[in-house]
């Protein structure tokens, strides 16, 4: 190595006598590990971007040298699309498998298929020859547990046995889920979207997107959803997709060695996750853009589109619902909506906003309690208790017993002539002879009224239990429970409006558009609007929410009602607090997330925020030519800063540049191993000229100019904090130095900015825990 160093600098024998020949600027070779960041640290976006530009420049220059290099440069250019293809295929496959497994295990709680135990109830009766259309849910091959064990399907004994086994299966599934999460992958719990948002903003959480997390999250998601708890699989599917993205990034050095590029891939993976969760590819791209991503260049938009397309295509090939659709809730309504209906739609928007506020406040209070009391020490017990309560209360009510997705599907459905649901128990007019599609409004029968009571009880149950379920130590999504709350409320309102229109068609509001014998009101549409309103109230999505909803249901002409409800729910919820549920959880966990949507309006200056303060010891700095290796090592050992400013001398404090702690550590370690004569008393030089060794007995100097960042971001002490916050947000900085006339005064880190913002909002600045 020694000889290499001498020859690479082209040193003459006389230089070697002076000792400068051995002086090797070994940084021409990249260090192992140097680009990696510590766990729970923020990446430096500017640095990652400039490193990628350098890499690109090198590849372009080399590609002109030979055909082989040209092929390599083309492969490099295509690697992004290849990664997207792989992510889409794996995400689509996992989503299909999860859907099929959830279907089967949800039905397993009630009974089993005798012809093939791995068939769900629906598949079992499809394959049967003895199924009639009217009794399509009943077939001899499908037996409930009581019938299988005792031979009786009716009576109190059978009901009690079925009840008991339903609760037992639910407890078993949730116990397995929480145990697997606890033992193998603690990061697999929750929805994952708050953490994904934080990671995409440039934070490092090692293992959060690892292989174990992917495996355990996929398995436990099936168990958690099948247990009948009030949670969905949509949020966790975004986490699963991002784990797939991270997995494929490690195959390509372009992404594995550059944290900024990796985040572009993860943004696109999030889009693929929503694409398969809802069967809404365009909604997925917009969700990634509006809700999750921090940095979203145009190139990422195209790649997200491609990944979402491939994922949706793969899911369609698997066809988990057997209806050749990507979604469970596909509906087709035949009636238009009328202007007067905007009033109930907007009222549903208000309900969605109020429910969102109630849910966020209740859930955050409960999660805070979990963090600060003994409750947090017993996650398994908590999950078991909540599952027990959920199962015991859910079984008696047919609307809470079934899976939440099926419930929403039934609430969205329009009552056709062939519907057997209780919600469609209307009194038919015997003289009616009309086409099947266009059934006129009819008076509600006894089935509809009993269904309304059950739905009202289901609504109260869902509202309360979801607050306690979200945030437990199992994978738990929020989209489906929120939509269920809205769909129940919407269906109730829809039936009420429909009956008013039928009984009072001579009222002035109904006169223009609702004649007797016409089909005016579609209760299913109200359920759809309510679902959108409640989901918007909780997450504060608008554009992506409306697109997801109309892709989800195929209801293209109902965009205006959906938009009205989404905007109203956002306004109402924002009146009580600006944060959605994900931002609230980010705050609760103390992640260093600078939200682009927050406005900073206070009139403070950089000098008010910078460290060190008056009472604190002076800033830890390095000088350009008078610090020894031992001084540097002591400084690294005694402090935990991410980097150090380099100044001309301690007297002048004139700033030269900034050096990262990790690079400094690795550089000194490498120099001690590979460069002769570097000892503790060697002087470290950050200057451009080669240092002169005065006497032969002096130790060999160490030149570290190459790891010095000569253009660190600086602001003057009188820069308004509004500007500083904006710079941190838009450039994704880790730290920024404060100077006056070139003299270094202090430093502002991302954590200082977040603490200052918390202080200005009268919150506890120490709540921002991470670095």
UniProtKB/TrEMBL annotation:
Gene3D superfamilies, alphabetically?
3.90.1280.20, Clc chloride channel
Instruction: Report whether Methyltransferase shows up as a keyword of the record.
Output: no
* GO molecular function list: antiporter activity; ATP binding; voltage-gated chloride channel activity
- Quote a single Gene Ontology cellular component term: Golgi apparatus
Q: What keywords does the record list, in alphabetical order?
A: Antiport, ATP-binding, CBS domain, Chloride, Endosome, Ion transport, Membrane, Nucleotide-binding, Repeat, Transmembrane, Transmembrane helix, Transport
Q: This chain belongs to which protein, by name?
A: Chloride channel protein
Give the gene that encodes this protein: CLCN4
Q: What is its main location?
A: membrane
* Membrane disposition: Multi-pass membrane protein
Pfam families, per database record: CBS, Voltage_CLC
Recorded source organism is Oncorhynchus tshawytscha
Query: Where does the record place it?
Result: Endosome membrane; Membrane
What are the residue boundaries of the CBS domain, all occurrences included? 610-674, 708-766
Q: List where the protein spans the membrane.
A: 78-102, 163-185, 205-225, 265-289, 301-318, 338-360, 380-399, 451-471, 478-497, 525-550
Q: Which InterPro entries match?
A: CBS_dom, CBS_dom_sf, Cl-channel_core, Cl_channel-4, ClC
Q: Please give the family membership noted in the entry.
A: Belongs to the chloride channel (TC 2.A.49) family.
Supply the SUPFAM superfamilies for this chain. CBS-domain pair (SSF54631), Clc chloride channel (SSF81340)
């Amino acid at each position: 190595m020694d000889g290499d160093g001498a020859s690479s600098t082209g040193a003459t024998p006389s230089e070697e006598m002076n000792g400068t020949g051995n002086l090797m600027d070994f940084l021409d070779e990249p260090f192992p590990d140097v680009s990696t960041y510590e766990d729970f640290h923020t990446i430096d976006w500017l640095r990652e971007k400039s490193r990628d530009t350098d890499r690109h420049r090198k590849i372009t220059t080399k590609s002109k040298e030979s055909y082989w290099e040209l092929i390599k440069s083309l492969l490099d250019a295509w690697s992004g699309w290849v990664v997207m293809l792989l992510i889409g295929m794996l995400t689509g496959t996992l989503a299909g498998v999860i859907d099929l497994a959830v279907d089967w295990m949800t039905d397993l709680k009630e009974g089993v298929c005798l012809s093939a135990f791995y068939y769900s109830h629906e598949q079992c009766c499809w394959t049967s020859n003895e199924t009639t259309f009217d009794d399509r849910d009943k077939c001899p091959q499908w037996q409930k547990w009581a019938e299988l064990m005792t031979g009786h399907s009716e009576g109190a004994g059978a009901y009690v046995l079925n009840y008991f086994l339903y609760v037992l299966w639910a407890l078993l599934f949730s116990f397995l889920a929480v145990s697997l999460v606890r033992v193998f992958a603690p990061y697999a719990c929750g929805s994952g979207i708050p953490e994904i948002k934080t990671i995409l903003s440039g934070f490092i959480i090692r293992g959060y997107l690892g292989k174990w997390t992917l495996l355990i999250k996929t398995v436990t998601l099936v168990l958690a959803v099948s247990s009948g708890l009030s949670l969905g699989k949509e949020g966790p599917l975004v986490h699963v997709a991002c784990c797939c993205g991270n997995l494929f990034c490690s195959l390509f050095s372009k992404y594995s060695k550059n944290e900024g590029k990796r985040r572009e891939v993860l943004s696109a993976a999030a889009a693929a996750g929503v694409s398969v969760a809802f069967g809404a590819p365009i909604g997925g791209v917009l969700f990634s853009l509006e809700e999750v991503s921090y940095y979203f260049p145009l190139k990422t938009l195209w790649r997200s589109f491609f990944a979402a397309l491939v994922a949706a295509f793969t899911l369609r090939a698997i066809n988990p619902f057997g209806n050749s659709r990507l979604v469970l809730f596909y509906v087709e309504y035949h009636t238009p909506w009328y202007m007067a209906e905007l009033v109930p739609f907007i009222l549903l928007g208000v309900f969605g906003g109020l429910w969102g506020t109630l849910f966020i406040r209740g859930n955050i209070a409960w999660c805070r309690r979990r963090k600060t009391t003994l409750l947090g020490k017993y996650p398994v017990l908590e999950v078991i208790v909540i599952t027990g309560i959920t199962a015991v209360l859910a079984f008696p009510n047919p609307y809470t017993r079934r899976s939440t997705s099926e419930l929403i599907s039934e609430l969205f459905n329009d009552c056709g002539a062939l519907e057997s649901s209780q919600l469609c128990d209307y009194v038919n007019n015997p003289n009616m002879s009309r086409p099947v599609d266009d059934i006129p409004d009819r008076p509600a029968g006894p089935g509809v009224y009993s269904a309304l009571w059950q739905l009202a009880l289901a609504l109260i149950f869902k509202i309360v239990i979801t607050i306690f379920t979200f945030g437990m130590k199992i994978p738990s999504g929020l989209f489906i429970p929120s939509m269920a709350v809205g769909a129940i409320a919407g269906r109730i309102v829809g039936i009420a409006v429909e009956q008013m229109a039928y009984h009072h068609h001579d009222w002035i509001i109904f006169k223009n558009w609702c004649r007797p014998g016409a089909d005016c009101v579609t209760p299913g549409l109200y359920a759809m609007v309510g679902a959108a309103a409640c989901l918007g109230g909780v997450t504060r999505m608008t554009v992506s929410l409306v697109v997801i909803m109309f892709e989800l249901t195929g209801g293209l002409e109902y965009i205006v009602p959906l938009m009205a409800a989404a905007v109203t729910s956002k306004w109402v919820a924002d009146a009580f607090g600006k944060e959605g549920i994900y931002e609230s959880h980010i705050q609760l966990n103390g992640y260093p997330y600078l939200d682009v949507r927050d406005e900073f309006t206070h009139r403070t200056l950089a000098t008010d925020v910078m460290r060190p303060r008056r009472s604190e010891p002076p800033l830890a700095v390095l000088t350009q030519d008078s610090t020894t290796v031992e001084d540097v090592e002591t400084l690294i050992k005694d402090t935990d800063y991410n980097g150090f400013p380099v100044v001309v001398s301690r007297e002048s404090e004139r700033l030269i540049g900034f050096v990262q702690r990790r690079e400094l550590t690795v550089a000194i370690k490498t120099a001690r191993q590979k460069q002769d004569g570097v000892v503790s008393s060697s002087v470290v030089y950050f200057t451009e000229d080669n240092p002169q060794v005065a006497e032969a007995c002096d130790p060999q100097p160490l030149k570290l100019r190459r790891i010095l960042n000569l253009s660190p971001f600086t602001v003057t002490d009188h820069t308004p904090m509004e500007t500083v916050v904006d710079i941190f947000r838009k450039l994704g900085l880790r730290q920024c130095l404060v100077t006056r006339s070139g003299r270094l005064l202090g430093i502002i880190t991302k954590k200082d900015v977040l603490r200052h913002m918390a202080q200005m909002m009268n919150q506890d600045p120490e709540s921002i825990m991470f670095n």
